[in-house]
Backbone:
């Protein structure tokens, strides 16, 4: 078997400056073209999928041949040239493989010599011949005709060695070729999207699309990306959330609405945060945050069953994680009070909370200091980081939840929950604030915070307030990260769940 190490990226502009293996492959390409062949034909006459060939002839006896002629194409992942008989394996996009046997007796001297001279690991290869099994029991094609379908000018990495994480992320196309887990994640993400959509459609929700470019950023507390539109000569924002447009749809009479969307937040990147990420948001008229808790639990458990056949999933490290049953719930203020051994309430002074942050070694941006922010960072430090089982954390400070209805029985807090799994926040939901007068007051408070230097505060959105003034029914709303849901289901980090995550460019690229 011929295996070649991965070649570092080169900015070389002339063939003489290329690494040797790339020069050799470039020479092969040129030789094929000079001989009147094609290194990149427009198509090849495939008649069978590799997976279908493997399934159809798996039951043959070792060494048995048939008269069935099949024609396949795939990427060469193994090649061994030995005298008058060459062996190769081609792989499809899902990792299915079939063996090719190219012999002097079947293709002749010139074709066999060309195979030995032209075909490399990583090439896309077309092969036609009789289906059967080798004497060693491998489903094989006894090749009578072959052709290069696409010449690879860069070699594959060594197939039995793990790629470095940075290489996996930066060159996901290579990762997909060589690592089954990468292909599985891509399929699981697709299956997850379908499961979520089908679950919501079955409950009467309508999927819509809302703008990614917005004149006002809102729907969450986050720093936006800013761009400029030349035609209107105005600055625009990449959306940080679709919330305010989905609520407009509820005002308009779409009583059950959702969107699976891309959001952009100009913030840090780590194992659970990406500046570009996918989110599901759903809103239901005449619901509340408890309605959305039931919905969220049901669609997450349904997704686990759809993807893995059970609500108990196996993570990448081999551990089991149970998403089944009724999920636990606790209140933010109650659980923080228990952790600190002293009662914390919406009336607890900011100065006391600051002292407790200092004692715990928690630093807080002075531009964002208020009661609600301090309570939340204390809670994350003392409680949130230690939650493992799926848990609804209920009832948040009003200062940090400007789009949420006041709690129906307790002053100073709002009807909001955050869902925590494995120590990170998976989703959030509100009993939505639908009083336009109070919503204006909340926006004005956000504007004052922005004026004091808080660049994550929301702007006052007059168009949204105009929509609300037409009458928005009582509603529940929910947002859940798709990438983080895959993290909960697989135990992997966020950069593994996103097919092509944003990464800092390498120097010189």
Residues:
């Amino acid at each position: 078997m011929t295996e070649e190490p991965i070649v570092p990226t080169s900015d070389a502009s002339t063939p003489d400056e290329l690494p040797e293996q790339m020069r050799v492959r470039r020479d092969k390409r040129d030789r094929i073209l000079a001989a009147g062949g094609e290194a990149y034909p427009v198509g090849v006459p495939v008649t069978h999928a590799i997976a279908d060939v493997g399934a159809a002839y798996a039951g043959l006896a070792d060494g048995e041949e048939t008269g069935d002629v099949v024609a396949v194409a795939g990427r060469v992942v193994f090649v061994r040239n030995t005298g008058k008989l060459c062996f190769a394996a081609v792989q499809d996009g899902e990792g299915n493989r079939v063996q090719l046997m190219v012999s002097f007796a079947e293709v002749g001297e010139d074709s066999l010599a060309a195979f030995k001279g032209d075909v490399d690991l990583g090439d896309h290869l077309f092969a036609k011949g009789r289906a059967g099994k080798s004497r060693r029991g491998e489903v094989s094609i006894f090749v009578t005709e072959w052709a290069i379908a696409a010449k690879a000018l860069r070699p594959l990495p060594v197939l039995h060695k793990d790629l470095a994480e940075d290489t996996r992320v930066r060159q996901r196309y290579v990762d997909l070729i060589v690592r089954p887990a990468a292909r599985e994640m891509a399929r699981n993400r697709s299956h997850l999207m379908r499961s979520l959509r089908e679950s919501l459609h079955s409950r009467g929700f309508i999927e819509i699309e809302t703008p990614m470019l917005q004149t006002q950023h809102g729907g969450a507390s986050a720093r936006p990306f800013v761009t400029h539109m030349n035609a209107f000569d105005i600055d625009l924002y990449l959306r940080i959330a679709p919330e305010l447009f989905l609520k407009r749809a509820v005002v308009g009479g779409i009583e059950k609405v959702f969107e699976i969307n891309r959001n952009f937040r100009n913030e840090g990147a780590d194992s659970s945060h990406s500046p570009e990420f996918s989110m599901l948001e759903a809103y239901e008229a005449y619901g509340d945050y408890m309605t959305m808790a039931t919905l969220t639990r049901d669609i997450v458990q349904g997704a686990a069953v759809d993807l893995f056949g059970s609500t108990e999933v196996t993570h990448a490290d081999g551990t089991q994680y149970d998403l089944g049953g009724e999920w636990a719930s606790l209140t933010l203020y109650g659980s923080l009070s228990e952790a600190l051994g002293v009662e914390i309430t919406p009336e607890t002074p900011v100065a006391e909370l600051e002292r407790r942050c200092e004692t715990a070694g928690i630093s807080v941006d002075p531009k964002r200091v208020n009661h609600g922010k301090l309570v939340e960072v204390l809670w994350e430090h003392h409680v949130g980081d230690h939650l493992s089982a799926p848990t609804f954390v209920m009832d948040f400070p009003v200062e940090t939840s400007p789009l949420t209805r006041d709690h129906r029985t307790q002053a100073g807090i709002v009807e909001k929950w955050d869902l925590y799994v494995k120590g990170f926040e998976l989703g959030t939901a509100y009993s939505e604030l639908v009083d336009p007068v109070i919503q204006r007051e909340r926006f004005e408070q956000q504007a004052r915070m922005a004026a004091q230097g808080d660049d994550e505060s929301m702007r006052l959105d007059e168009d949204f307030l105009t929509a609300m003034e037409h009458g928005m029914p009582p509603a529940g709303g929910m947002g859940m990260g798709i990438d983080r849901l895959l993290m909960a289901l697989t135990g992997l980090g966020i950069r593994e769940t996103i097919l092509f995550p944003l990464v800092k460019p390498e120097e010189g690229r």
